[in-house]
Amino acid sequence: MDVGQAIIEGTEEVFSTMLMVELETGKPIEGEGGEVESNLTSMLGLGKDIKGMLAVHCPASVAKDITGTFLGMEVTELDDDVKDAIGEIANMVAGSLKIFFQEHDLSIELAIPTTIVGKSFHTAGMSGATRVAVPFTMNGATFLVELKYVDAT
Amino acid sequence: MGKNVLLVDDSKTMRIIIGRSLRQAGIDFDNIFEAADGIEALEVLEKETVDIVLSDINMPNMDGISFLREKSTRDAIKDIPVLMISTETGDDIIGEAKSLGAVGAIKKPFTPDKVNEVLGPLL
Description:
The complex is a heterodimer.
Chain A: H1 3-18, E1 24-25, E2 29-30, E3 40-48, E4 50-58, H2 60-71, H3 80-103, E5 108-110, E6 114-117, E7 130-138, E8 141-151
Antiparallel strand pairs in A: 1-7, 2-7, 3-4, 3-5, 3-6, 4-8, 7-8
Helix pairs in contact in A: 1-3, 2-3
Chain B: E1 4-8, H1 12-24, E2 31-35, H2 38-47, E3 52-55, H3 64-71, E4 82-86, H4 91-99, E5 102-107, H5 112-119
Parallel strand pairs in B: 1-2, 1-3, 3-4, 4-5
Helix pairs in contact in B: 1-5, 2-3
């Protein structure tokens, strides 16, 4: 079960379909490492057979760039539109992972995204969880899509 | 007389994107109404003339399945068609939506062409 590749395919599909943007994709990281300095993180809980959290971590510049591309307008602040847009990105990537896990006979339920904005924060998942993270670059700046999960079957 | 659509999604961004996709697909509505959850959607349907509803499934307060269930109990609005637009595309949940009256489903992410392909025949 190649979770890293599933994150890559899901994220690339969201950006190419909804934003008409081709991302530069880094190598999946399993375990610790690869953190980006995030000013905005959208998280979405997973439940049922797979328990955990999908998170999209963005520096402010990337979050505004994604939102501006999504909405077709200039975005200058990390406002509610940005939180909403990155939350929806997380939601769609999680939806693709739901299909991926279903193909491996694992059923998951998705929560509604939550977004945190700040200058210095750290998110922590369940202890003992498997972590897979993939860095993506859009217009020269990097954001991270991270999945922390345990197989609860 | 033109047609009216109701977009139901807790994400304002997604409501904007769906509205833009409708225009890009060449589907013109006289009025595009919006609601952030099933409760707001029911309120709009009771007040406005709506020809079709495009609804998300995962929403706070009242989700898309509960919205369909409640709508089916109200004679004045129960026959208005609802097309689901959601990340939720599993056979179980879409099957439940269809059993409650949904006329189809579009998976997020989507293209304007996909919207046209599914929605066009329903208008």
